[in-house]
Automatic annotation (TrEMBL):
Transmembrane segments: none
Similarity section: In the C-terminal section; belongs to the homoserine dehydrogenase family. In the N-terminal section; belongs to the aspartokinase family.
InterPro entries per the UniProt record, alphabetical: AceGlu_kinase-like_sf, ACT-like_dom_sf, ACT_Aspartokinase, ACT_dom, AK-HD, Asp/Glu/Uridylate_kinase, Asp/hSer_DH_NAD-bd, Asp_kinase
SUPFAM superfamilies in UniProt: ACT-like, Carbamate kinase-like, Glyceraldehyde-3-phosphate dehydrogenase-like, C-terminal domain, NAD(P)-binding Rossmann-fold domains
Gene3D superfamilies the UniProt entry points to: Acetylglutamate kinase-like, Aspartokinase, catalytic domain, Dihydrodipicolinate Reductase, domain 2, NAD(P)-binding Rossmann-like Domain, VC0802-like
Protein name: Bifunctional aspartokinase/homoserine dehydrogenase
Length: 805
């Protein structure tokens, strides 16, 4: 014997009914009890009819739609299978609704009759469609015995066992069709088992008959690692234990009714979740057998919750206080979802559904009225709009560090934990969080525990040479990223005037046209709303501009939950107070501020410095060639070109800024040196750097670039003398940034063959670091430090560092 339950989506129309008929017949001569829900959406229509009637409103339109749909289903079945057997009386249903409207009251017994009408329609249709094989209907009110209320009633398992077996013996058929969701009380009156209670009906029948299996046929392939409506990459779980399934159902897994699993577990009847629309796909099997080695099976979430906290000096050490709290709630039928208590016994916190909040508060106020007046109990603290995220897996107890990973994932999602609960068997751990962050929390947790495909959500500011090259590299590296299970999307691009954002990601080869058509400018508020609306969990702002206005916003970016990757040097070379504020903002927000390219373009300069100083090393002295442009020019001068010729050649080859004075002034090198000094722990300002420019500061001041280049040969002779003087001593001129005894200097130096910078030319950068660990020979970092390609590569490397691994 097997029990088959079909949900509403499996019975929605004639095509669905035919599919269910075929599935039932596929079992051949094997006996089966088929439990049916109402056709999809019909129960909602009946609930709406009852509500309109109780409000005394005209429900003609709703009734006509319901009656028309019912008649259409009946007509389609009759056209192929003959007269429908035991069609429920719509006139009786209408009479009851008219009575409700007249009295403006809907007793629970009448409400139960109305909302369970759809299941009777399904049974009538399916019995007719299967009459050729002798299928018979079972009256659910004769089989399912319940106690207490008419709505959301509890099943009496022993009475039901006796009743079901008796009805099976009387009917003597191979296939039995029964309405789900429905039962009867001790007086024989119709009761219902709560919304979606047809699963519960099937489980109770399966347990009562000691069935071989209870199959729940629905519109999904089985139980998923998370709600697939929230998490697109949720995967099907092949096997679960009864306990795992109960935990998931209790904490919000939509595919399972919370009451379903217990009857099957008690009778040791396996329960299988299958997809009516794709029956060949293996489903999810719930049983007592082993569940594999995976420590975590799934994530579930429950929202629309409120947390109440009862506290006060009268709680501590007082026997029976918890019993009074929960007894008061039980008396008013308030369901408690989660409980936690402080170790000092000063307070008890628990979650209830928000719809029960007023009822819960009234019950507690009445129960503790005297203690509150005496100051022994404080007013109940209430937090609304909460959710619970739960990690479920029987094998969690045998794997260390899962709780730490869970809470680290919540931190990564920028989620604060309100309360924590874990069951004694360690098969589930729950965190109460803000409801509006539930989807973000689920995404990060699922990413870290199941898909293992971390995401990087990039917003690019600045579309100059480096920005354009970065977009090319992001596109080029997509296959490389995919091979390493990394998902990187470019969600936004902005220049100084326009900003384009796309929830599906900016298409790499179409970003320029999309940006040109945008009529909006970049703003942090706009970006924050975009991230929240699309539940992005690892947003990264990448600044490839030279904008001081953007640099001044970095602290705000970090506080808003963005990582910041900066090719722009303005932030790190602003005043020392802002430099420290940025470091503090990154630390307090849990986000990363990365700026490797500020000093050496693609060279790993700052990474190495931070590793050295983080290991307790101390800087003794530093000297470096920090400008690829000046490295190229001084190499050309070494080859015999004059200062003006070398500058012209460097400009033509794209090594300099559009205005070469930006390079020749030494300011760019001074900024880089300042960053290195600050990383070494020196509290300096840019004005503290001693700068010797390549050309006199007032030379050709205020002129155009063309006029400057025309006048530059005037300096050739004097500069040639310096070159010759150095050469006579076996030395070469280099433009060097140096740090010694806390003094930072930028200028032209003559270095000999023993110097680490002697051979550096043609656009190369080099840094010689003399430290406590590296002496008397310095630690040298050398490589090309100019050009959009290597700078973009350095930015790309920083972007990857935002991954929390």
């Amino acid at each position: 014997m097997r029990v088959l339950k079909f949900g509403g989506s499996s019975l929605a129309d004639m095509a669905c009914l035919e599919r269910v008929r075929s599935l039932i017949l596929n079992y051949g001569s094997e006996k089966a009890v088929v439990v049916l829900s109402a056709p999809g959406g019909m129960t909602d229509s009946l609930v709406s009819l009852a509500e309109h009637a109780q409000a005394g409103e005209d429900f003609t339109q709703q009734w006509d739609a319901f009656a028309s749909r019912s008649a259409a289903l009946k007509h389609e079945v009759e056209a192929q299978y003959g007269d429908v057997i035991n069609w429920p009386s719509l006139s009786l249903l209408r009479d009851k609704l008219d009575g409700v409207k007249l009295l403006k009251q809907c007793p629970a017994s009448v409400n139960a009759f109305v909302i369970s009408f759809g299941e009777r329609i399904s049974v009538s249709l399916m019995v007719t469609m299967l009459k050729v094989c002798g299928a018979k209907g079972l009256d659910a009110t004769e089989c399912i015995k319940t106690r207490s209320e008419y709505l959301d009633s509890e099943v009496e398992l022993e009475s039901t066992r006796n009743a079901v077996n008796k009805q099976i013996d009387i009917a003597e058929a191979g296939i039995y069709i029964m309405a789900g969701f429905t039962g009867s009380n001790a007086s024989g009156e119709l009761t219902t088992l709560g919304r979606n209670g047809s699963d519960y009906s099937a489980a109770v029948i399966a347990a009562s008959l000691n069935a071989d299996i209870c199959q729940i046929w629905t519109d999904v392939d089985g139980v998923y690692s998370a709600d697939p409506r929230l998490i697109k990459k949720a995967t099907k779980v092949d096997r679960l234990s009864y306990k795992e399934a109960m935990e998931l159902a209790y904490f919000g897994a939509k595919v399972l009714h919370p009451k379903t699993i217990l009857p099957c577990a008690k009778a040791n009847v396996p329960c299988e979740i299958k997809n009516t629309h794709d029956p060949d796909v293996p489903g999810s099997l719930i049983s007592s057998q082993g569940t594999g080695d995976a420590p975590v099976k799934a994530l579930s979430s429950l929202d629309d919750l409120a947390m109440l906290t009862v506290s006060g000096p009268g709680m501590k050490g007082k026997v029976g206080m918890a019993a009074r709290v929960f007894g008061a709630l039980a008396n008013d039928n308030v369901s408690i979802v989660l409980i936690t208590q402080s170790s000092c016994e000063f307070s008890i916190s628990f979650c209830v559904y928000e719809q029960d909040l007023s009822l819960a508060l009234n019950a507690l106020e009445a129960a503790f009225e005297l203690e509150t007046q005496a100051g022994l109990i404080e007013p109940v603290e209430v937090r609304k709009e909460l959710a619970i995220v739960t990690l479920v897996g029987d094998n969690m107890k045998s794997h260390k560090g899962l709780a730490a990973k869970f809470f680290a994932s919540l931190s990564q999602a920028q989620v604060n934990v309100v309360a924590i609960a874990q069951d004694s068997t360690e098969s589930a751990i729950s965190a109460v969080i803000s409801g509006d962050l539930c989807k973000d929390a689920m995404k990060v947790c699922h990413e870290n525990f199941f898909t293992h495909v971390p995401s990087i959500d990039v917003f690019l500011l600045g579309c100059g040479l480096v920005g354009k090259e970065l977009i090319k590299q992001l596109e080029k590296q997509q296959a490389w990223l995919a091979n390493r299970n990394i998902k990187l999307n470019l969600y936004g691009v902005a220049n100084s005037r326009q900003c384009v954002l796309s929830k599906d990601g900016v298409v790499f080869d179409q970003w320029e046209s999309a940006l040109s058509q945008s009529s909006t400018a970049f703003s942090l508020n706009q970006l924050e709303q975009f991230v929240k609306r699309n539940h992005l969990i690892n947003p990264v702002i990448v600044d490839c501009s030279s904008s001081e206005q953007l640099a001044d916003q970095y602290a705000d970016f970090l506080k808003a939950g963005f990582h910041v990757v900066a090719a722009n040097k303005k932030a790190n070379t602003g005043n020392m107070a802002y430099y420290r504020a940025l470091q503090q903002a990154a630390q307090s927000s849990g986000r990363k501020f990365l700026y490797e390219t500020n000093v050496g373009a693609g060279l790993p300069v700052l990474d190495n410095l931070q590793l050295l100083f983080g290991a307790g090393d101390e800087l003794l002295s530093f000297s470096g060639i920090l400008s690829g442009s000046l490295s190229y020019m001084f190499g050309a001068i070494e080859d015999g070109l004059s200062l003006s010729e070398a500058t012209t050649q460097a400009k033509q080859n794209g090594f300099t800024e559009p205005d070469p004075r930006d390079d020749l002034s030494g300011t760019d090198v001074a900024r880089k040196l300042l960053i290195i000094a600050r990383e070494a722990g020196l509290a300096l300002e840019l004005s503290d750097i001693q700068v010797e420019p390549v050309v006199p500061e007032q030379f050709a001041a205020g002129t155009s670039v063309e006029d400057f280049m025309t006048q530059l040969p005037e300096l050739d002779a004097a500069f040639a003398d310096r070159v010759q003087s150095a050469a006579s001593e076996g030395k070469k001129l280099r433009y060097v940034g140096s740090i010694k005894d806390g003094v930072c200097r930028v200028g032209i130096e003559a270095v000999d063959a023993e110097h680490a910078l002697y051979d550096i030319r043609d656009g190369e950068n080099a840094l010689a670091i003399l430290s406590q660990y590296y002496q008397p020979k310095p630690f040298v970092i050398r490589g090309y430090g100019a050009g959009a390609e290597v700078t973009a590569a350095g930015v790309f490397a920083d972007i990857l560092k935002t991954l929390s691994r």
